[in-house]
Structure formats: structure tokens, C-alpha cells
Amino acid sequence: MTQRALFLVNRHARKGQQQLDAATNQLKSLGFELQEASIDHPDQLADVIRDHRGSVDLVIIGGGDGTLNAAAAGLVDTHLPLGILPLGTANDLARTLGIPATLPEACQIIAAGKVQPIDLGWVNGKYFFNVASLGLSVQITRNLTKEVKRRWGVFAYAATAIQALWNSRRFHAEIQMEGRSEKVRAIQIAVGNGRYYGGGMAVAEDAAIDDQRLDLYSLEIEHWWQMLAVLPAMRRGSHGVSPWVQTWQGKEFHVHTRRPRSINTDGEITTSTPAHFRVMPNALSVIVP
């Protein structure tokens, strides 16, 4: 049975241009009737998905986490299943879902059609799949230009992180959850919905994208060398045992800062503090292995 798919590719993604033709041909050979839409800017993705609400059975998106993030609102509104071709730099959502990085395998998974509901994070009206954060990560995002990502790939995250860390200072914030309030001085506050972010860092050891909760950590190092000590634990998600990290788990958080601070959602700066975070259980469906 032929499936009608809206096929959206970020032509500015690191691998988008080279692999677009191959993806198109393989998906057609697997029985998909593709409706391709021209997108000049990621901000248009949600509206394009809404416009195709009644004419397709699923949406296939080729790109990275930023492209997927831009499409989230349209997917929530239309209830169309999402197939992912990981064509970005970090592909943390694909990693969380176990979708392989190779294009032929990713196409085969979409063709198999196993659908799984997943949660979304929400902050100030903006959705996120992986992580929303403020502090160090925002500076990394500002330094992580398209040219840097295109040239260095996933290693660009490490290089820009070192540069941002050198110039970062702690900031004051108040975190509120279920009647509990904590004042912190942090270099970064991150709220995770999925498992991976930042090119393979783990939000928490037991984090999952369908656990109907958020995982928050406050990174409170004072010197750059302390980051070297805590980094291996952050890769594993076990950073909660570090003396420089505080962690919380819950369905909803409020974060206040002395002055507005920008917030990064899945690698894009989209809002600022004061911030209201909450989990959106089973918000959309994704095709998984």
C-alpha cells in the first residue's frame, strides 16, 4: 500500500545537499509517494505541515535537531507521525530513539512503520525534544555557526564549548518545583526531556523520552578545570553525584534570574527567562526501530 509522505529536508543541514537525491530515490523505491515542499527558513516548517494536514499520512524530515525542533508545533497540531532522516551535525534525537546515522538504514526504519508516542518538553510556549538550557549552552550556540559545524562536524561542539567555558561566569537563579525553591549560582541550567543533547551528552542516567518527566541540572563550577573533572560523568549522565551539580526530576519547573537570560531549545535560541518548563506526555508519534 502506497503511503503519502510530506518530505521536508533542511538543505542547509551538514549532509542535506549531498544526500537529498539518495533519500528521495530510496524512499520512492520503498513505496512512498513523496510530496516535497520548498522551505526557505525553518520557521516555515510548522505551517507547511499544517497546510498538508489532509493530504499526507506522515511527515519525513531530513535534518538535525534544530530542523526537527522547528517542525514540532506542526506535528503536535496535525497528529501526523514523524519519520526522521538524521542529516544534521549532532542528531541527538535520532540517537535517543536508536535511529542509525546511515541513510539507507534510516529509510528502512521509516518503511517498517513502527510508531511510538514520545513526550515533548515545553518552555514559554516553545517545544523541545532534547534539552532547553540557559547559560553556557547559549554562548556555545551563538559561537556554533553553520560554517563551524560544516567544517568540524560533531567536534565543533567540543571546540566551541572550550571557548565559551573560558569566558563564562556564574549567574544567580531561583529554581522552583512543587513548592520547593532553591537559589543557585550556576554556569548552566539545563532541563532535559529526552536522553541525549550536545552531541551525545546524557541528561541523566535513567532519562528517557517517554518517561513523562523532565530532568533538570544546575552546573555550579567556579573554575574551568572543574569542568574537566565533571565532564566524563556528564557524558554518562551520572553528574548528579558531583559536588558541583544539583539535580531535580519533575513534571514542571519555574526558573527566575535577576535579568532576562536567553534560553536554547534543541540548539536554537527561542525564548528567555523567566521560564516556565513542563513536560507534554505522549505529545507526538515518531517512527522508531
From TrEMBL:
Alphabetical GO biological process terms: phospholipid biosynthetic process
Pfam families per record: DAGK_cat (PF00781), YegS_C (PF19279)
Regions annotated as coiled coil: none
UniProt domain DAGKc: residue ranges: 1-127
Entry superkingdom: Bacteria
Family under the similarity heading: Belongs to the diacylglycerol/lipid kinase family.
Listed name of the protein: Lipid kinase
Taxonomic placement: Bacteria, Bacillati, Cyanobacteriota, Cyanophyceae, Leptolyngbyales
